Amino acid sequence: MDVKTVLIALLVAATATVRAEFVAKPDANTLWLEDGRDIQVGTPSDSKKWRSSLAVAALPEGGFSLGWKSDTERSGGRYVPVSSEYPYLVFEITGFEFVGKQGYRGFSVFVAGGSIGMEGNLQKGVYQVDARGVSGDFLRFYVYGADIHFKYLEMVKRPDTLVTIQCPGFSARRAFGPGDALTFTVNLKAVPEDVAVRLVSPLCQEPILLNGLDRIQLKPKAGDRKTWTATVQVKALGSGADIPAGGVLVKTTVLDGVTNAPFWSVIPYRYNQGVEDK
User: Fold this and answer.
1) β-bridge partners, 38
2) How many CB atoms lie within 10 A of CB 146?
3) Which of 16, 52, 147, 174 is the most buried (most CB within 10 A)?
4) pLDDT tens-digit profile of 64-97?
């Protein structure tokens, strides 16, 4: 075997080894990427593979699935690198298969202090979690009554479509309520025709009306049509009852002739109807 053949064989072997695990830093914006190719499952003691307590499988069409196995095997995940320089967990859900006899369906994901979840009427789309934790953490999924199909899962510096929700109460009180101003901002890579957001409950995705409205229209920022924003002074939210942290999902729709899936994010702070803690 000549030197050239040996070098080619070593390169192929090295590439296969990389593909067998998460792809580390495939580009400057991405800390790691899981796309399901050669996805690896191991025991709880194996820190470099998915735990077998969930049904984990590559999908023939590309991507992978994480699924419920039984009432006692419904959570799992794997250890992943996390970094404050790459604070966003982003994943795209392309479909669901309901399994088991139980009527309850749902999922939630936790990593580095960030989380998002959904129950009942599970939805496709691109999910974004703000996870600004310390280096080294466990990426945990809880899955109930379903196999969830993922196109990819990654941690990035900045998503291609970045949705942010800002409010002075978030930092001052770790809460918001009537009288607070919510600012929704969507930063995109290309100029869209329209951008809007809706607030919905994680429970069956029922709409949560903001000041009686189920749709908030964003407008392009002056001089920057890739940045769309809206600021709303909160008068009333939902039924008027308090809402726990994580109880308001933000569904963002982008009209650009290309994007089909909605973008899902979460307000990770509680809503207090009263004003006594302001």
Assistant:
1) none
2) 21
3) 147
4) 999 988 777 789 999 999 999 999 999 999 999 9
**E-state strands within 136-209:** 137-144, 146-156, 162-166, 175-176, 181-187, 194-200
Distance from chain centroid for Cα 130: 8
52 and 42 Cβ atoms separated by less than 8 Å: yes
- pLDDT tens digit sequence for 199-230: 999 998 999 999 999 999 999 999 999 999 99
Residue 40 in 3-state DSSP? coil
**Residue 131 near residue 114, CB atoms below 8 Å:** yes
* Residue ranges in the chain assigned as alpha helix (H): 3-19, 168-173
Pick 162-271's CATH classification: 3.20.20.140, 3.40.50.1000, 2.60.40.1930, 3.30.70.141.
2.60.40.1930
Q: CATH says 3-156 is which class?
A: mainly beta
Residue 2: predicted pLDDT? 55
Tokens standing for 201? 């409950």
Please state the domain extents for the chain.
Answer: 3-156, 162-271
Residue owning tokens 């089909």: 260
Q: Please give the Cα distance from 202 to 187 (Å, whole number).
A: 24
List, for residues 164-193, the tens digit of each pLDDT value: 999 999 999 999 999 999 999 999 999 999
User: Residue 278's pLDDT band (boundaries 50, 70, 90)?
Assistant: very low
At 12-29, the pLDDT tens digits run: 333 333 333 579 999 999
Nearest to 243 by CA among 212, 216, 262, 268: 268
